[in-house]
Amino acid sequence: MRVFFDAAEMQAKGTPPGELKRIIKERYKTGYYKAPERAGISYMLSPILRTYYNPEESDKVVTINHPHVMYYAPNVSNEDIGGGKPGGMYPHIIMPGPHGYIVQPLGETEKAAMNKEYEEMLARLCKIKEAWCLPKKKSQ
Prior knowledge:
By secondary structure, the protein is of the alpha+beta class. The protein is 35% helix and 18% strand. It has two domains: 1-34, no CATH class; 38-132, no CATH class.
């Protein structure tokens, strides 16, 4: 948790994103931060997610419909698990390194049921702010 509090503090002080990443990587390298020793799981089961598309490669923020479960996987690579591409339907690694996760998307049937259940809420969110609108499907 210390790394997350430090990152928030540096952001509040105006540390640029590139410098923040450099500092955190250096602190891991020197042992200032250590990866947690226990497994963990995070249920990301919402019908809408506003997040960085690929934080390792860019600062692009997107709104997506990608309900999934995340398993804590420190220092595991996509190659280690035979992972798919981020955003796809197969498990894959995000944030490889001390705070890496395996992301396992929900199946299409479960995703469709969730979208149906929250259809009205999603429509209201989209009316409030365009950035909260889910992307249109290519067939629409």
